[in-house]
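Table S2 (text version). Query chain:
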Amino acid sequence: MESLANTVARRTFRELHGVVLSAGLMERTVKVRVPSLKWNKLLKKHFNNPQTYLVHDPNNSLRTGDVVSISPGFRTSQHKRHVVNHIIKPCGVPIGERPPIPSKEERETEREAKSAAKRERKALKKKVAMVETALERAERMVGKASKEIAARLKMGAVKRPSEELGR
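Corresponding structure-token output:
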């Protein structure tokens, strides 16, 4: 039996080849059909069982009919779990006239940059919220203090500042 580490490693480095069924209908997403076989125990025979995947195309560089290489990657949306590695055989427009497909390293650096920017925005938002709450507390304290001073002046327990100076 395979160890868990081997299973995970095999899944992460698995590369699938398929044909683009639809491109250009969704932003940065294509539908790819990957051929596969399914074993029928009763007939003891393999039958075609093609799988269809929604695949992330970062630069909208794929066209319908392209043969592409895809691999499981980070989850881009609810249904997209694969990303394009490279075009094996283009259909129609040559590869040189299309936007380039970013490499795995480029995709990872872009993703890390986006997450760093998000962390920075989140930290800034948290600081702004803390300052706003501190300001609200200070305003409440000033309001309470002014009410207390007004009440004491009314009772005569505290003299007005002008009376203390003798004016």
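Notes on Table S2: The chain is about 40% helix and 25% strand. The chain has a mean pLDDT of 89.
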